[in-house]
Each structure stands twice: as C-alpha cells, then as structure tokens.
Write a structure and sequence with these properties.
- By secondary structure, this protein is an alpha+beta fold.
- 42% of the residues lie in helices and 17% in strands.
- It contains 27 helices and 21 strands.
- Strands 1, 2, 3, 4, 5 and 6 form a six-stranded mixed β-sheet that branches. A five-stranded mixed β-sheet has the order 8-7-11-9-10.
- Helix 4 runs antiparallel to helix 5.
Length: 703
C-alpha cells in the first residue's frame, strides 16, 4: 500500500494550506545549511507556520537546531529513498501548524539525533539547555540490544514517565508517529499492521487524553485504512459518491448565519467534513446516511457567553434535537475539550449537528496540550517569553500544575506503572487502561476530587485516594448512604471511604471482580500474592447464621398499676431504665411493657387497647436488644464479643446473619448490670473496626 493510499485525511485538509512536498524538502535539505542571516530553505514552511501562531518568536534557535540535525543525519535515508532530515522536518511542521512553542519545535528537530547519530545528550544539553535535552531524551528509544523484546514496552514506559514531568514529550511522539503512519506504505504489510495496532491501542488513546484531536483523527483514519482495508474502501467510495453532500449543510449554514446576523451575534459559521472513521461509525449507528451526516456545522464566537447566546437563537429558530445536547463548557472533558454540542432540524427536516465554541476553545480542541505551550512554566516566565516559548530552566509552579491532565489519568498511570515491573504486565495493563475512554469526577467527603475512568467502583476510589492503605477499606458511603465496595460510581458522586484501623487487614479476592483501574488491580493482586494464607479467609465470620445463647435471667424490674399481673419487657424494643414506657395487657394476665416510641404502641392504641401505667423499680439490672450493622471482615465477631464482655455485659443471645453485599447484620440480646452503662457500651461497639451503626431494637421482632 502506497503512502498516498494510506492518507485518507486529505479530503478534510484545511483550504489554503497546500500539501508539503517532502521530496522538494529533501532536495532543499541536500543543499546544506543556508547563510547565517536566514533560515535554510527547507525550514521555510516551519518558520511560516510557527510565526502564524507566535509572531514574535525568535527563530535563531530553530536555525541552530536544523543545522545540527541536517549535518548529523546527512547521508542517512528513509526507506522511501528521501533524505532522513525530511522526517524531523515533517514532525516539526506538524507541531508548528498546531501552535507548538519554540522549545518543542527545537526538540522535535533533534528528536532522532541521539537515537540515530553520534550526537549525545550532553551535546544537546550544552547547545540547547536542560529543557530541550529532557524532551529529546524523553522520546529517544531504548536499544533492542539491551532490552530485547521488552524494548518497545519499556520505551513507552520511559516516555510516559517523562510525560509526567512534561507533556510535550508525548506531543513530539504523537507527531513523530503521525508522519511515520503517513509514509508507512513503503513497509511490509505485516509491519504496517503491527505498527498500526500499537498506534490504535496506545497512541490514539493518548492523543485523545491529551486533547490533540487534529492528530487523533488523522491517526484513526490511517489505522483504519491499514487494519480494515475493505471497510475503508467502502467508506471512501461512500464519501466520493456523496461529493455534493456538503450542499445540504451549506444551505443550513446560510440559515444559521442569517439567524445570528439578525440577533446581532458576531460568529463564524463553518462546515466541517467528518473524517473517514467518523463517517464509518455514523453509518454503523444510523444505517443509510443523509447529506447532513457527512459533516457538522462549527460556530466560532468571541466569548463564553456568546456560545450560550448562539445556542438560544438556534433552539428558538430551529427545531432542536434535545437528546443531542451536551454542555462541555460548564463541564469540560478531562482532556481540556470545551464546546456546546447540539443538533437542529431545518425546514425540510434535515438534521445538522452543531458545535459551538470560542476561538480559543477551538484552538485547544484541535491542539490540546500543544496549545498550552509549556504548561509547567510560571506565569511570569510565560508572559516574558511572549510567544518565543519558555526558556531553559524555567521553574514550575509550586502549587497545582497548570495542565489539568496531570492530576487525573496521567497521575494514575504513573502510579500503577511503578508497581508493574514486568514489561508484559505493564504493556497489557497499559492497553487495558487506555481502552477506558471516558472519565468521571467524584467528590471526596472530606474535600477534594478524584478523577476515575467511567465504570469505576468504590474499590477504585479507595486505591486512588489511599494507595496501599486501601487494603483495609471496609466499605463506603456514596452520597451519604452506605454502599458496598462493588458500587459503580457516577459522575458527581460524593464518596466517603471507611478504613479498618487494623494494619494487618487486607483485600478480598472478590475485590478483583469490582476493580476497574490498573492501580487497584495491581495492588490487590500483589497483596493476595504476598498473603496466600489469607486468600481462603472469609469476608466475615461466621458465614452461616449462628445463635449464641447463655442462661436467661429475669429482667422485669418494671412496676405496673395492675395487681397480680406478670410484667414482661417487650422484645421488639427492649426498654430499659430510664426509657419512657407504657404497658398493655395481653393474654394470660401478662402486661407487655414497650418504649413509648415503639411502633407496637401505635398499633395497640389503634385497636383501642387500654394502656397500663408503668414505672421503673429499684433494680438496676436490665436486658436490651441491640442491632449491629457492619462490613464483613475476619475476626469481627470475636472483636465485638470481647468489647461486650469488657463492658461487663452478658450475652443472653446473639444472631449473625450471612453477609449480603459485604454487609453483616448482628442481633444481640444483652444483660446489663446497670442500665446507665448502655450508652457507653453502644459507643464502644461502634468503635470496633468495621462497625458503622449500633442501634436499639425499634420494630417488632420477627422471631
């Protein structure tokens, strides 16, 4: 397959920007460096693109970098026969068109020098400073001679770690892969497929997470052409057969311009053709495509408020498709993306999707982190650079990083990769992690946020917040309500994680069924491997229902105003002094004493049963029934019974129900030497790790 055949993105190239002739650039490169007072001819396109975004940029460092790159790569050729210098030139041009600052362009020109020539990192540092040296080192591959089959995964690990300190490392790698994919046609088919699969599984998800949509969409099309040639050919033919499909969108765009003009809203309305993969997905989703399905309308305005003004006019003057509305301005995506999405129907019923954003939002939507320049430079340094890019040695912020991608998915990735020393485990886990293409944000009850992939559970939240300390997690409260660790979290949930204070406690093997993040799975697997004796330990003891009985003692120290009656305390609410109580006569000359707030009292009164006055006698002993709600864990029953015994209470009976969703319910009937000790006993039982509630019986007993 030729390089031209694998470049399906040409149909969507911006008008007015002709394709760069790499062969002409190659011939220009062979002429060698130009005079000192101007850039070499081969760098002209890069200079023009860079100055379009950074008019005041100092190009002298680019001239110096090009001279070093051209001289060091001289005599090297690509498989296509072109001089090798055309590759770093093309990579630099891609980044320049996206608006990358000078430091990134300098490093991109030099990105293969250390890997493929005699230039060393020390030379790069001496000539261009620490910052450029760091970027070049970050994208330099590890030698297969040293790492063998692990060279590729370990190279990606190295780049990701470097990206954790500077996302520009991955920006250069993405541009490098894009140019290699554009020219992949000279490779053997099996090598094309191998490179395309890695691009699909790793590079495209990274481009999505970094928000570089311009690179992501073209990479998707190139991979589509190689891995699915039949579907690609069909989609390409479909687009060719509907060459006039844009007319339908153009007609709606004219109506939109007229509506916005009449509303006195200054806006630019563009028709954006969908790329190949987007058309293919739309066909699979909708079946037969209409003319308006081959593109979208893009409305660009000056201010955030104008976006909502445009939305209001469109929904007023056209019929909106409410199900298609999404507000990514009020709630931006985790990859920096901001825009309003909607769809409206024209007079003829044709539905057009509309994207509404500011010019700045559009720049970030296309270029992602590339548009940030150096996201770690201080504000003062960035302003001082004024388009020329940050200087080497610029100090980062002391507080939270300016780049919003760093605290989320990238931080999680950097954390779990440290626990995956095996290259195969790292490579497999990386692909699985990147396959989760949506992110949610949950709030911590004690303050702060957690970024998690969609589908994450309380298990994932625990390891994201506490790391290995989450081994002792007992349960959680989600939005104030108790929830098992298997609970799937939604965007905006508030999570409070409950930890066992016993440092020896560990996770259950069942947690692996609920863990979605790589960090959680690696941590759980590691703990279980290090504690094989705990794998068979049940989550709670005992699993089956148990009834523990002791000698029953008389406890009716209540006095009723009914001569000869036998007094019994109700088992449904187990009143104790000094509870406010009342009694009702039942069969056999027995008066049953209830707490006044017991629901049985309401039922008795509803039946017109006459109450009997009850008072407490002088005896201090009493019986009480307590319900204990807890999360399952080993030794829970032993710890509770020890606490009860320490408080001086006797267990008359106890029932432990089988665990349900990691929660266990205990029922204890206890004999207390003094009712005054009941509040202290309940507090002590609540302090047992795993117990989240202790309450007195409040409703009729079931047995």
């Amino acid at each position: 397959m030729s390089a031209e055949a694998t470049n399906p993105g040409a149909h969507s190239r911006r008008r007015g920007l002709p394709r760069i002739d790499l062969r002409r650039l190659g011939r220009a490169a062979l002429l060698g460096p130009a005079s000192r007072d101007r850039l070499p001819d081969a760098m002209g396109h890069v200079a023009d693109a860079h100055r379009a975004h950074h008019p005041d940029a100092d190009l002298s460092v680019l001239r110096k970098a090009y001279v070093l790159a051209e001289s060091s790569h001289r005599g090297q050729f690509r498989k296509s026969g072109e001089p090798y210098i055309t590759h770093p030139l093309a990579v630099t041009l891609i980044l320049a068109e996206l608006g990358a600052e000078t430091t990134t362009l300098t490093a991109s020109l030099l990105h293969d020098t250390v890997e493929d020539t005699d230039v060393t990192l020390d030379q790069v540092r001496a000539e261009f400073g620490d910052e450029v040296c760091y970027l070049v080192d970050g994208v330099t591959k590890l030698e297969k001679v040293d790492y063998g089959a692990a060279a590729e995964p370990e190279t990606f690990r190295k780049m990701l770690v470097a990206t954790g300190n500077d996302v520009r490392v991955m920006s250069i790698k993405l541009a490098d892969r894009l140019h290699n994919m554009r020219t992949l046609g000279v490779m053997r088919p099996e090598k094309q497929a191998r490179i395309a699969k890695v691009t699909r599984d790793v590079l495209i998800p990274l481009a999505e997470r970094l928000g570089v949509q311009a690179l992501k969409t073209e990479l998707e099309d190139l991979v589509f052409a190689i891995l699915h040639p039949e579907e690609y050919a069909h989609t390409r033919a479909l687009i060719a057969d509907n060459a006039t499909a844009g007319d339908a969108l153009a007609a709606i765009s004219e109506d939109v311009r007229r509506v916005l003009r009449e509303a006195d809203i200054t806006a630019e309305v563009l028709v954006r053709p969908r790329h190949f993969v987007s058309v293919h997905r739309s066909r699979l989703k909708r079946g037969e495509l209409r003319g308006t399905d081959f593109g979208r309308l893009l409305v660009l305005v000056g201010e955030d408020a104008d976006c909502y003004a445009v939305l209001g006019e469109l929904h007023t003057c056209f019929t909106p498709v409410i199900s298609e509305f999404k507000d990514f301005i009020a709630a931006p995506k985790f990859n920096l993306y901001q825009s309003l999405h909607t769809a409206v129907a024209g007079p003829d019923g044709a539905v057009a999707e509309v994207l509404i954003r500011t010019h700045q939002m559009h720049k970030v939507a296309e270029a992602g982190v590339v548009a940030l320049g150096n996201p770690y430079a201080s504000v003062d340094a960035a302003e001082a650079a004024d388009g020329a890019g940050p200087t080497a040695g610029t100090e980062p912020y002391d507080g939270e990083r300016a780049d919003p991608t760093r605290p989320g998915w990238l931080s999680r990735l950097l954390e779990w990769q440290q626990a995956a020393p095996d290259p195969d485990t790292f490579w497999t886990t990386l692909r699985a992690d990147l396959a989760q293409d949506r992110e949610i944000t949950v709030f911590r009850a004690e303050g702060g946020l957690l970024g998690l992939p969609a589908g994450a559970t309380c298990v994932d939240a625990a390891y994201a917040q506490y790391g290995e300390a989450a081994h002792g997690c007992l349960g959680a409260r989600v939005n104030g309500r108790l929830a098992p660790l298997s609970t799937v979290l939604s965007d905006g949930d508030t999570v409070q994680l409950l930890l066992d204070r016993d440092a020896a406690s560990g996770p259950s093997p069942e947690w692996l069924d609920h863990a979605r993040t790589a960090a959680a799975r690696i941590a759980i697997t590691g703990w279980l491997a290090a504690h094989p004796e705990a794998v068979g330990t049940p989550d709670a003891a005992p699993r089956a229902s148990h009834a523990l009985t002791a000698d029953r003692r008389g406890a009716a120290n209540a006095v009723v105003d009914l001569p000869g009656a036998t007094v019994r305390l109700a088992g449904c609410c187990t009143p104790v002094p000094p509870d406010a109580v009342t009694g009702f006569p039942v069969r056999g000359g027995v008066v049953r004493v209830h707490r006044q707030e017991c629901r049985a009292v309401e039922r008795m009164r509803a039946l017109d049963r006459e109450p009997v006055t009850v008072s407490w006698g002088d005896a201090s002993e009493c019986q009480v029934t307590l319900y204990v709600e807890s999360f399952g864990r080993p030794r829970l029953l032993a710890d509770l019974t020890e606490t009860i015994a320490t408080a001086g209470a006797a267990i008359v009976s106890a029932t432990v129900e089988p665990p349900s969703e990691q929660r266990v319910r205990h029922t204890y009937t206890l004999g207390l030497p003094d009712a005054a000790g009941l509040p202290g006993l309940m507090r002590a039982m609540r302090d047992v790790p795993g117990v989240y509630d202790v309450s007195r019986a409040q409703h009729p007993a079931t047995a």
